[in-house]
Specification:
By secondary structure, the protein is mainly α. Helices cover 77% and strands 8% of the residues.
């Protein structure tokens, strides 16, 4: 008989896994049709880029979701049955993909900023922008792997022996852990918090503040144009009237 909390946790994990996998696969299939249909649609360049970001974000999320069955089996059996390599893969995906999701969201925010604040930028429209995007994406991935390298390096299998009252071995339990050394753990937590939370929040706030400011400026300019036009028309009519009366 399993504890109630374990049953509830596995039930929640199962629902998240099914809904998440189905939803992300649907998004991937839909975006694949959009991105592959170059000749039949007249989608804007910005829309295709945003679709590409969402496509990449779905792939990243799907990899994280595929770790749920392994995690569920781990909790269900109380031991890690998948071996050393799978443990390394588990910790790699759990940490790298979370930072990748944040990086993709920042890229989407920057794309919106460029689309709203600099829509006619030659740098954005030219081929150089695509090359730069590719270079930045590869650099981001390598940088994230570098940030997560300590926890990936120290990930491994830890064996715990459970003894009987007569000190004979009752069971060997395997745990998939990543035990960072004490001298490294505070620095790892600090820079992961800064890079994974503080910096993204600051960048998103800055970009969306500039976007809102730009939209307000555009709205005020659009609203002022009809008023200026009416003022000019009234002045012209007064001028014509004065000319006619003087004549």
């Amino acid at each position: 008989m399993f504890p109630g909390y374990l049953v509830a946790m596995l039930g929640v994990y199962s629902i998240v896994f099914i809904v998440g996998v189905v939803g992300n696969v649907w998004v991937l299939c839909t975006l694949w049709l959009i991105l592959s249909d170059h000749g039949k649609t007249s989608s804007s360049l910005t829309f295709r880029r945003i679709s590409l970001y969402v496509f990449a974000l779905s792939i990243v999320d799907l990899h994280v979701l595929l770790m749920i069955p392994m995690l569920g089996a781990y909790f269900y059996t109380g031991s890690w049955p998948f071996g050393y390599v799978a443990c390394k893969i588990f910790w790699t995906i759990e940490n790298v993909n979370k930072l990748l999701s944040v990086a993709i969201l920042i890229a989407m925010t920057f794309e919106r900023y460029m689309g709203v604040c600099r829509p006619f930028s030659n740098f954005q429209r030219g081929k150089m922008w695509n090359y730069t995007n590719g270079f930045i994406a590869i650099s981001f991935v390598l940088f994230i792997f570098l940030l997560c390298s300590p926890i990936i390096y120290y990930a491994g299998i830890t064996e715990h022996v459970i003894l009987k009252p007569d000190n004979t071995i009752h069971e060997r339990v395997l745990f998939c852990t990543s035990d960072l050394p004490d001298f490294l753990l505070p620095y790892f937590i600090m820079y992961m918090f800064i890079v994974g939370f503080v910096l993204p929040v600051v960048l998103m706030v800055v970009f969306y503040t500039l976007i809102i400011k730009r939209l307000k400026t555009t709205a005020n300019t659009s609203a002022a144009q009809p008023f200026e036009k009416d003022v000019k028309e009234k002045r012209f009519r007064r001028y014509i009237s004065s000319v006619n009366s003087s004549g």
